[in-house]
Amino acid sequence: MRHVLSISAALAAVVTLSACSESADDSVERALQQTVNVVDESDLNDVILNSADPNEAVRYFQRSLGETPDRIDLQRGLAHSLVRAKRFAEGKLAWQRTVAMKGVTNEDRVNLADALIRTNDWAEAKTVLDQVPPTYETFKRYRLEAVVADSNKDWKRADSFYETAVGLTTTPGSIFNNWGYSKLTRGDYSEAERLFGEALRQQPDLFTAKNNLILARGAQRNYTLPVLRMNQTERAQLLYTLALSAVKQGDTNIGEGLLREAVDTHPQHFEAAAQALQALEQG
Question: What's the pLDDT at 106?
Answer without folding.
Answer: 98
